[in-house]
């Protein structure tokens, strides 16, 4: 149904500094269309930081991240969807207004994606016209995830996407990731909960300075 | 371009939907100007002479009341992350949000100014010029407030800090804004100052978003 994506994502020797501390270094991976990367590791080892680096929201301390196969000159951030811990949902706008804004804004002058179809993915269509402030935590999270469908982009960065979702919705999310990969998209997911998705790559982050510094 | 429109429309809708900001700014403007005669005395000539300065200073303070909203809410709820990943460069995001602040705060304030001018014995025949001068000068107010708002990203109660950072930058707007209106009262022919006011606004509309974008980039870290 979507135009197949043909973007590949490559990271070479990426390092990340947070608060003067090196979180990880010399991180490399390459993802071809349709591949998925599971990022795992204990709290504080840089899963979110890695996602934000790919999304262009955090500077790289070293190395580079590049996406190939898209139109020349498109920054990597514009190929990515990032759904993080904060939902970016405006409580005084309705569900539909929230989603329509993100679709209009993220698409820019391009076309594609359908707000009404997206609303159906997690069954939010019946409550599309109530203020988003009345939604439960799980429903807000679903609304944030709907950005993925309202504006097609090849790379999905999902940071703990299953937080506060019910079992049925987690399954629907897994199906959506599978569907996205079948269309040639790339998914990078960090999660502590097994999603049941068969990831083609796994990245284990672990604390770098464990050996040098004794635990307090 | 569509992205700019979508963002400006959303910000205007949000500011009307969430309410508060505009009402507080207008009320503050009204109260500050209304109490001035109590401090200055009932001398009508004196009031008319200080009216341009008073109207401008009170407008700057009222506009700054809502300046922290330009980026703060979007930063808190994670919208700013997604805005940064859209087709607009960060400077475009800053410009769109400053523009929305101008429409929702400065334009209503400029339209209220004539009513307050009457309280200060401001000559009625120069009222159109007062509104024009304020509409010409206030874009600079909103766009420079955007710099302050982006510098204080993530700080709690950043409103006062923004005022501290930004008020000195308003000196040119204030000088030419006041002299435009004063000149209109005494000598309505000379237009030079008015063009200077427009020039300040245009320059801030181009330069301030670049500064705000640089500040936003560090705010993400």
Automatic annotation (TrEMBL), chain A:
InterPro entries in alphabetical order: AAA+_ATPase (IPR003593), ABC_transporter-like_ATP-bd (IPR003439), ABC_transporter-like_CS (IPR017871), ABC_transptr_haem_export_CcmA (IPR005895), P-loop_NTPase (IPR027417)
Record's keyword annotation contains Ion transport: no
Domain ABC transporter: 9-215
Organism domain of life: Bacteria
Alphabetized GO MF terms: ATP binding; ATP hydrolysis activity; transmembrane transporter activity
Keywords recorded for this protein, A-Z: ATP-binding, Cytochrome c-type biogenesis, Membrane, Nucleotide-binding, Translocase, Transport
Annotated GO biological process: cytochrome complex assembly
PANTHER family for this protein: ABC TRANSPORTER I FAMILY MEMBER 1 (PTHR43499:SF1)
Family membership noted in the UniProt record: Belongs to the ABC transporter superfamily.
Record-given protein name: ABC transporter domain-containing protein
Organism this protein belongs to: Methyloceanibacter methanicus
């Amino acid at each position: 149904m979507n135009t197949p994506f043909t973007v590949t994502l490559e990271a070479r020797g990426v390092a990340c500094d947070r608060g003067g501390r090196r979180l990880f270094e010399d991180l490399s991976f390459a993802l071809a269309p349709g591949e998925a990367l599971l990022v795992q590791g204990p709290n504080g080892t840089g899963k979110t930081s890695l996602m934000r680096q790919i999304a262009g929201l955090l500077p790289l301390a070293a190395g580079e991240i590049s996406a190939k196969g898209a139109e020349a000159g498109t920054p990597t951030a514009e190929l990515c969807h990032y759904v993080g811990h904060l939902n970016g949902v405006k409580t005084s706008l309705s569900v539909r207004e929230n989603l329509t804004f993100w679709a209009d804004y993220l698409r820019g002058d391009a076309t594609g994606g359908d707000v009404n179809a997206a609303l159906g993915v997690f069954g939010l269509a019946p409550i599309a016209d109530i203020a988003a402030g009345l939604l439960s935590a799980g429903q807000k999270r679903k609304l944030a995830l709907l950005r993925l469908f309202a504006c097609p982009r090849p790379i999905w960065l999902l940071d703990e996407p299953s937080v506060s979702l019910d079992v049925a919705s987690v399954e629907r999310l897994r199906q959506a990731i599978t569907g996205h990969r079948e269309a040639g998209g790339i998914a990078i997911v960090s999660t502590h909960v097994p999603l049941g998705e068969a990831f083609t790559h796994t990245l284990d982050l672990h604390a770098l300075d464990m050996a040098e510094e004794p635990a307090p | 371009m569509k992205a700019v429109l979508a963002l400006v429309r959303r910000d205007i809708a949000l500011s009307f939907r969430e309410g508060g900001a505009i009402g507080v700014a207008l009320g503050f403007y009204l109260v500050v100007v209304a109490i001035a005669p109590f401090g200055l005395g009932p001398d009508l000539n004196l009031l008319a002479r200080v009216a341009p300065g008073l109207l401008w200073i009170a407008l700057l303070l009222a506009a700054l009341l809502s300046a922290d909203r330009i980026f703060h809410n979007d930063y808190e709820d994670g919208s700013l992350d997604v805005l940064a990943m859209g087709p607009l460069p960060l400077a475009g995001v800053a410009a769109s949000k400053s523009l929305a602040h101008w429409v929702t705060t400065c334009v209503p304030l400029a339209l209220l100014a004539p009513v307050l001018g009457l309280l200060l014995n401001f000559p009625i025949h120069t009222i159109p010029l007062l509104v024009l001068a304020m509409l010409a000068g206030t874009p600079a107010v909103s766009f420079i407030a955007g710099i302050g708002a982006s510098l204080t990203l993530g700080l709690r109660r950043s409103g006062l800090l923004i005022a501290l950072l930004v008020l000195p930058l308003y000196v040119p707007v204030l000088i030419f804004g006041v002299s435009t209106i004063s000149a209109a009262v005494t000598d309505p022919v000379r237009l030079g100052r008015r063009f200077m006011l427009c020039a300040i606004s245009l320059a801030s509309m181009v330069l301030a978003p670049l500064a705000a974008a640089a500040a936003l980039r560090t705010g993400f870290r």
